[in-house]
């Protein structure tokens, strides 16, 4: 029998000599000029530092920020979709000479993109801010994009192919796991934005045992976070995948991260500050953060802050950091053990990479309880396959990625076991 990572209970019973735990705020999915983002990595990092983040993984597509790259300044400016101060002007104003390195070529002026190892020393401060090397492994199968965040990687992962969507997910996750073992450096992976181009179904993700995390919220406005009339949104994908994992595939449930996936930094759509994770760790160091993430000791947020998350003796307890004038509704969601497992096969429109998808009964991801206010307690009855909590606040998201978005928070699945 595998039991859930009962992180929170363990924390409470930790010996008195243990280091106190802190909540660290971070984002593990962001783009820069190193791939298809439109600002310099040091400028993007500066945004996160000045907006209260503790750690950041700049995750460009299939590249690490580790080599000599010069870029034409005209190409830099073309990425910007707004008028006003140019990207170069802003870069020079913030960092000035000699940090900004430029050179005249025959027909253009070029600027050098700083490597992670160069700019991290400008920003890192013990206990306050940490940069973690990351990559968005951007693979595909047929027309399905298969994007995987690889966090704390040491060497670039070249996307691998395979014979099915699940095969490709598995191959790329294994490549990171192999590197992790070979180098003895802890890493995590998260499967990104399943509904991007309607690429991944809950079943595609459910059957990959190597998978541990996925994006329950991604701030990019084009990733179909809420689904549409034919396809379910990211939260329902989570519940379907976890129900299948616990019953059919006999593997632990996925944990959910929230990320920005920001590409634009000049006031356009796709800007940063939309989704993040809060990790409960003893130190602001990559190994400690990765360890806490693997133990499930974190929650995902698009604005809601929790002062406490605890699962002990079958009781889930949350304390929300309530803001004045804001109301909070927490739903305790899960699937009953005796759920109605019937499905209906539905034909998909042409924009879908799947000809058909399965529709599940209302038992999958049902609401066991709905609680108003900042204190939430739920005692499991023993009839739940798993439970998780999702908090929705009445406060509009200051930088929404979909209409009428309010701030939310998502805790990890607990109260599950595999027989
Ligand atoms: Zn992506
Ligand atoms: Zn991305």
What does this entry show, briefly?
The chain has 419 residues and is α+β, with helices and mostly antiparallel strands. Helix content is 21%, strand content 31%. It has a single domain (7-67, 115-410), classed as Metal-dependent hydrolases (TIM Barrel), CATH 3.20.20.140.
Number of self-contained structural domains: 1
Low-confidence stretches: 1-16
Q: Which CATH class applies here?
A: Alpha Beta
**According to CATH, what is the topology?**
TIM Barrel
The oligomeric state is: single chain
Give me the number of helical elements.
9
The N- and C-terminal alpha carbons lie at a distance of 5 Å
Q: How are the strands of the largest sheet arranged?
A: 7-2-1-13-14-23-22-17-20
Q: Tally of extended strands?
A: 23
CATH architecture: Alpha-Beta Barrel
Average predicted confidence as pLDDT: 95
Please identify which CATH superfamily we are dealing with: Metal-dependent hydrolases
Q: Radius of gyration, rounded?
A: 21 Å
């Amino acid at each position: 029998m595998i039991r859930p990572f009962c992180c929170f209970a363990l924390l409470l019973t930790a010996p008195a000599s243990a280091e106190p735990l802190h909540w660290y705020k971070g984002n593990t999915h962001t783009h820069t000029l190193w791939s298809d983002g439109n600002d310099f990595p040091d400028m993007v990092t500066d945004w996160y530092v000045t907006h209260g983040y503790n750690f950041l993984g700049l995750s460009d597509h299939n590249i690490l920020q580790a080599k000599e790259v010069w870029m034409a300044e005209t190409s830099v400016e073309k990425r910007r979709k707004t008028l006003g101060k140019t990207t170069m002007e802003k870069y020079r104003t913030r960092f000035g000479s000699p940090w900004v390195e430029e050179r005249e070529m025959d027909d253009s002026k070029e600027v050098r993109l700083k490597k992670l190892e160069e700019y991290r020393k400008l920003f890192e401060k013990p206990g306050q801010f940490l940069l973690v090397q990351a990559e968005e492994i951007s693979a595909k199968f047929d027309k399905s994009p298969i994007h995987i965040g690889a966090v704390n990687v040491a060497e670039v992962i070249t996307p691998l192919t395979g014979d099915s969507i699940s095969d490709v997910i598995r191959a790329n996750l294994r490549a990171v796991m192999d590197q992790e073992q070979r180098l003895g450096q802890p890493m995590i992976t998260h499967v990104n934005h399943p509904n991007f181009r309607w690429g991944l179904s809950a079943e595609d993700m459910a059957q990959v045992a190597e998978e541990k995390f996925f994006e329950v919220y991604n701030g990019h406005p084009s990733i179909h976070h809420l689904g549409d009339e034919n396809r379910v949104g990211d939260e329902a994908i989570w519940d379907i995948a976890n129900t299948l994992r616990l019953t059919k595939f006999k593997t632990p449930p996925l944990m959910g991260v929230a990320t920005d996936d920001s590409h634009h930094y000049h006031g356009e759509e796709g800007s940063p500050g939309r989704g993040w994770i809060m990790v409960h760790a003893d130190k602001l160091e990559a190994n400690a953060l990765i360890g806490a993430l693997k133990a499930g000791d974190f929650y995902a947020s698009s604005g809601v802050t929790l002062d406490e998350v605890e699962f002990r003796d079958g009781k889930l307890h949350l304390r929300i950091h309530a803001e004045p004038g804001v109301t909070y509704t927490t739903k305790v969601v899960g699937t009953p053990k005796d759920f109605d497992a019937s499905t209906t096969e539905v034909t998909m429109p042409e924009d879908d990479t799947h000809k058909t998808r399965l529709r599940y009964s209302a038992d999958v991801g049902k609401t066991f309880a709905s609680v108003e206010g900042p204190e939430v307690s739920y005692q499991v009855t023993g009839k739940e396959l798993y439970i998780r909590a999702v908090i929705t606040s009445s406060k509009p998201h200051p930088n929404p990625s979909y209409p009428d978005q309010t701030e939310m928070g998502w805790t990890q699945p607990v109260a599950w076991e595999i027989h």
